[in-house]
Amino acid sequence: MVNARNMDVLRVSEDRAAHGEGPIWDARTQNLHWVDMLAGDLLSLRVSDGFAHRQHVATVLAVLRPRRMGGFVMALERGFAILDDRSATPRYLGDLWTDISVRMNDGGCDPQGRFYAGSMAYDQTPGRGTLYRLELDESVTVVLNDVTISNGLVWSVDAETVSYIDSATQRVDAFDFDAGSGTFSNRRPFVLIDPTDGCPDGMTIDAEGGLWVALWGGGAVRRYTASGKLDEVVRLPVPMVTA
């Protein structure tokens, strides 16, 4: 925390979610979307007037990303789905597993438009999660096994490196990324977070390559430079910061 600059935070909505996750800006609609994960609801904030809309999607809505042609690609409890603008019900692509004690968690899209989501056990049993990739043809590929709590996932500005958080490791890890195949390789630790400061959860990246990491149990978001140096802290009036 030494020499890190502290930043102020502005509240933009009333309480909306029991388990709020995965905020994402939709440039096409100029709305901010996020999920109330275990309620299975999609929340959309119209920034022009602050109106927030809630849409029930499924029993669990873990993570979503807007599609270029409208609607969303999303991860539900045990698989992927597509929600079109004209439909209230997502088109489910099928269960990836049958074990009801495991659910999807966080994810994201690579620069080629492939959608990734990782799973975890409800009771956080180590090693029971998997990171999956939804291909453009809607087939599914396993990217990583032996995951405990699959969380933040972002690509570097040059798209050659992907950063990933399995929260149980207390780390942000870096991988080399192959754009053609979507494969991850050469895993190495990038940032290590002391458990007394919270648990790394969701993550995003800025135009300078800085990683912004939400700290579950830490009441803050931290920015790490492209070299891994902590240089900014956003303190929040709530302890369980997800994304």
Short key terms for the protein model shown above:
single chain; 243 residues; mainly beta; five-stranded mixed sheet; four-stranded antiparallel sheet; 21 strands; 0% helix
Uncertain parts? none
- How many runs of DSSP E, i.e. beta strands? 21
Characterize the overall form.
Answer: globular
Order of helices and strands: EEEEEEEEEEEEEEEEEEEEE
Structural class: mainly beta
Distance between the termini: 20 Å
Q: Evaluate the radius of gyration.
A: 17 Å
Bin the strand percentage: over 45%
Largest sheet: 5 strands, mixed
Side by side, the strands of the main sheet go: 1-21-20-19-18
The residue-averaged pLDDT reads 94
**Helical region count?**
0
Walkthrough of the structure:
The chain has no helices and 21 strands. It has strands at 5-7, 20-26, 31-36, 41-46, 51-56, 61-66, 72-76, 80-83, 91-92, 102-109, 115-121, 129-134, 140-147, 150-155, 161-166, 171-177, 184-192, 199-205, 211-216, 220-224, 230-235. A five-stranded mixed beta sheet has the order 1-21-20-19-18, with no helix packed on it. The protein has a four-stranded antiparallel beta sheet with strand order 2-3-4-5, with no helix packed on it. The chain has a four-stranded antiparallel beta sheet with strand order 6-7-8-9, with no helix packed on it. Helices cover 0% and strands 52% of the residues. By secondary structure, the protein is mainly beta. The chain has a domain at 18-69 and 79-88. Strand 6 and strand 7 form a beta hairpin.
